[in-house]
Write a structure and sequence with these properties.
alpha/beta; Rossmann fold; 7-stranded parallel β-sheet; 14 helices
């Protein structure tokens, strides 16, 4: 009989993305005497992010990426599951969750969780057909369905399952006290960047991918500079489009005012340093960064494609992507000038990681008891 409950999480990779941060938060605040965490990933990791995850502690194992060899990706997953015999397989790869859920089902894992973190929109017909098939595969091979928010739930599992309460919403909770704005860190980080207090510093966090809409962000920032010359844009993240965005910044003539920072272990420093946060994403589920930035008491401007429930304070304003770049710039400048007194009651009530980690723990334990007829641990594993 095992001493701990083994939970095997599947993610695409270790970057500075929201899924990895959400997973880090929950694993860090769950009882290490009760759980053993194994994180299975595919792509070349950002070393800082991998080291942070391993510090929980947890075991991180890389398998063949789907885009390199799809069949080997699935068989690698199956072999790992057979080797470690997890009590729970919890997948965070969105449409591709079935690539781990199916091997888990074949290996006899009783609890198989599909977790949705996205709510994509405006894709091609071919993509939507493929997505439909993937969603069905996820549901067929899962024993439990989760989502980071209602829009991510509706997107992945459909209206019927959402309205029948067959999808558990696991909020992207964080350590709220950790992210509170620190003015000493603000001064130190701005000094590192060579930015004085008179300079408007706009921040953004996200993987350099089509979804995050960096092209539009750079266009908006150019409009900001036209209205307030002493401005800088700080971009945190990595991804396949970094070099393309650097070239585009040069094309717009704003390269001297854009800081491509890469990744950082110390997000609190960045949040403390910036004056306003801007996120013009094409689509999102319920981004962790939206919670973090409000906990840091930073005024924020989000595209209206982001789930409305992300507004957890009076510090968030939604703007349509149909609005002009000049209009976006006006709103960004307005938000920095208003100096609102933060109203954070809703945030603290619903997104404290300590409470939410206990809720996930309770769910795991309840499900295990249900599966094993009153026994918390499975007796058929060595």
């Amino acid at each position: 009989m095992k001493n701990k409950i083994t939970v095997m999480h599947f993610v695409s990779g270790f970057t500075s993305g929201g899924v990895e941060q959400m997973l880090y938060n929950y694993c860090r605040f769950m009882d290490k005497d009760k759980y053993e965490f194994i994180i299975v990933y595919q792509h070349e990791p950002v070393q800082d992010c991998l080291e942070k995850m391993e510090s929980i502690p947890c075991r991180a194992i890389r398998i063949t990426a789907r885009n390199e060899n799809f069949i080997k990706n699935v068989t690698d997953a199956y072999k790992l599951i057979k080797k470690y015999k997890p009590d729970i397989v919890h997948t965070h790869m969105n449409l591709m969750n079935f690539c781990a859920l199916l091997p888990a089902k074949l290996a006899g894992v009783k609890i198989r969780i599909s977790h949705s973190h996205i709510a994509e929109k405006n894709k091609s017909v071919i993509y939507r057909v493929m997505a439909y098939i993937c969603k069905k595969m996820n549901v067929w091979n899962a024993t439990a369905l989760m989502a980071c928010g209602s829009e991510a739930g509706y997107y992945m599992y459909g209206k019927n399952k959402m309205e029948k309460n067959q999808v558990l919403i696991i909020k992207n909770a964080i350590d709220l006290e950790y992210y509170r704005r620190d003015y000493e860190l603000r001064a130190a980080f701005r000094n590192e960047l060579g930015i004085d207090e008179d300079t408007l510093l706009i921040g953004h966090v996200g993987r350099f991918s089509e979804q995050k809409n960096h092209i539009r962000l750079l266009q908006i920032f150019k409009s900001v500079i036209n209205k307030r010359e002493k401005s800088k844009l700080l971009l945190i993240g990595t991804g396949e489009l970094v070099e393309k965005m650097k070239d585009y910044a040069k094309t717009l003539g704003i390269e001297e005012s854009v800081i491509f920072y890469g990744t950082t272990k110390n997000m609190k420093d960045m949040y403390s340093a910036i004056d306003v946060f801007v996120m013009p994403s094409l689509f999102e589920g319920f981004p962790v960064v939206s919670v973090e930035v409000q906990a840091a008491m930073v005024p924020s401007v989000f595209s209206d494609t982001i789930e409305p429930a992300c507004k957890l304070s009076n510090l968030v304003r939604f703007v349509s992507l149909e609005e002009s770049n000049d209009r976006w710039a006006d709103i960004i400048l307005q938000e920095t000038e208003e100096k609102k007194k933060p109203e954070l009651e809703m945030l603290y009530k619903a997104y404290d990681i300590r409470e939410k980690a206990q809720e996930l723990d309770h769910y795991y334990i309840s499900y295990l008891k249900q599966i094993t007829k009153g026994k918390v641990m499975s007796n058929d594993k060595n």
